[in-house]
Amino acid sequence: MKPLNVAVLGCGSVGSQVVRLLTEQAGDLAARVGAPVQLVGVAVRRIDAPRKIEVPAGLLTTDAAGLVARDDVDVVVEVIGGIEPARSLILAALEGGASVVTANKALLAEDGPTLFEAAEKAGRDLYYEAAVAGAIPILRPLRESLAGDRVTRVLGIVNGTTNFILDKMDSTGAGFEEALEEAQNLGYAEADPTADVEGFDAAAKAAILASLAFHTRVRAADVHREGITAVTAADVAGARAMGSVVKLLAICERTDTPDGEVVSVRVHPAMIPASHPLASVREAYNAVFVEAEAAGELMFYGRGAGGTPTASAVLGDLVTLARNRVNHGRGPVESAHADLPVAAMGQVPTRYHISLDVADRPGVLAQVAAVFAQHDVSIETVRQQQHVATRDEAGRDAAAGRDGGGRGRASLVVVTHTAPDAALAATVEDLAGLDSVEAVASVMRVEGD
Predict the structure, then answer these.
(1) Residue 162 belongs to domain with CATH number
(2) Model pTM?
(3) What's the CA gap between 264 and 207, in Å, rounded?
(4) Domain boundary among 267, 302, 337
């Protein structure tokens, strides 16, 4: 049969592995597709840049626009990332009649509808399994396997860098900076880790997951985002004391309200019980926990990043697209029929773990409880213990002529029942204003019960 011609945009850690697999597994791919799959071009920024794999002679080009404009290209694989020129190249490829495989989570989360509409108009496929959780097959199950079910919740660890850092903080007692440095030394974190540790990467993935799960267009700007830079060793130790671990979670929920169904999408660190399946996800691994009405609870686990695992997902999409072209068919198109409103974070029901440094005197607990009651927030548990002063606190005590060693102060840990996030945030703000509260030491959400 006539070969299917493939153009690859980008030859970095993922693109180079895509090129290698296309070359090494040409025979197997032809058998799976039903026609030969032929690599006809690889767009790069520099022809002479050092590469870990050897690209066949004559395939490298710096003219990405010219490559996607070729009328003999059937499938374009985009693995350059970012918004531009990736968006323009994908749109040009679709308009020119090529199907597209992309791993570009940032672009899909920011402007996915534009790409989906272009694919629909051109009558071509747009697949993007590799955009979320690397080799883990999660998008296709949401888009196809669970298409007949009603997904109510998606809860996941979708960033390996932050999971590695939090896991090291839990297993070794290290602080954030120390764990981050280890992650960078091992290659799990970039020199500039902002996208990971501030939650931008996870937020983009959460937007994609929510869009598929709830048949609603969700953009990255709709996602409430908090990173892990403020998580301390004390937070992690506090979680351990209550039989929990701290994870950066992407949480997508579909809930009923008096005004109808809404969707909430958020990324933030949270304590989850050690008994929860996600609590056992270690180091740089990813996992996604899905809840659906008929299917029940499902969990997807594996390597969420890396050149070879991500290339595996790209090749899976490529085979599917190629089969569709051979058989003159198409895969699923965008499903946004539900068009549910996205709730603001203040409306989202959640629970808080609050650690307070308070004066150790009668009546303090009553004052604290009164603030919770004022905001209609119910307390689940309270734990009080003698405050152990840090070296800095002891120095300040001595300078002020106070007894050192933390005498006269106590630590109060409160875990709430579920309440709207706005009510919980207002509670924390008012607690900080009490004369008996010297500091709100930490605030963290509790999930996963």
Answers:
(1) 3.30.360.10
(2) 0.92
(3) 10
(4) 302
Q: Cα–Cα distance between 120 and 126 in angstroms, integer?
A: 9
Task: Dump pLDDT digits (tens) for 190-237.
Answer: 999 999 999 999 999 999 999 999 999 999 999 999 999 999 999 999
Does residue 382 fall inside a structural domain?
Answer: yes
CB-based contact 358:368 (threshold 8 Å): yes
Alpha-carbon distances of 152 from 66, 295, 299, rounded to whole Å = 44, 11, 14
Per the CB < 8 A criterion, the answer to whether 127 and 254 are in contact is: no
Residues 215 and 360 in one domain: no
* Number of independent structural domains in the chain: 3
Residue 389 has pLDDT above 90, yes or no: no
Q: Does residue 269 belong to any structural domain of this protein?
A: yes
- CB contact at 8 A, 59 and 42: yes
Q: Active-site residue among 105, 168, 205, 247?
A: 205
| DSSP letter assigned to residue 362 | T
Active site includes 52?
Answer: no
In whole angstroms, give the CA distance from residue 442 to residue 241: 15
Query: Are residues 52 and 170 located together in one domain of the fold?
Result: no
Q: What is the CATH number of the domain that holds 321?
A: 3.40.50.720
335 within domain boundaries: no
CA 333 to chain centre: 23
Q: What angle do CA 171, 206, 377 make, to 5 degrees?
A: 75
Range of the domain at 313: 4-134+308-326
